[in-house]
Amino acid sequence: MDGTGTEQILASKWDLPFVLFTMVRVAFGGLPLWAKAIVIGLIGSAILWSAITWHRGRGRRVR
After folding, report:
1. How far, in Å, CA of 29 to CA of 23, rounded?
2. What is the pLDDT of residues 18-39, one digit of tens each?
3. Which of 3, 39, 44, 51 has the highest CB neighbour count under 10 A?
4. If you ran DSSP here, which 8-state letter would residue 22 be given?
5. Cβ contact 28:39 at 8 Å
C-alpha cells in the first residue's frame, strides 16, 4: 500500500458548502440582475412561507 489509493477520501466540513456555493455561482453567474432578483425572491418567499407554516403548525400542536 503506497498511500495513493482512493479508498479513503478525507473531507473538511467546508467542502459541501464550498461546492454548493460554487454551483450556485456558476448556475446564476450569467443571468441578468433582474433574473437573479426574481429567483432570489421566489426562493426567499418559499422559505418564508415554509417557516410561517411550520411555526403555525407548531403552535397548534402545543395547545
Report:
1. 10
2. 998 999 889 888 999 999 999 9
3. 39
4. H
5. yes
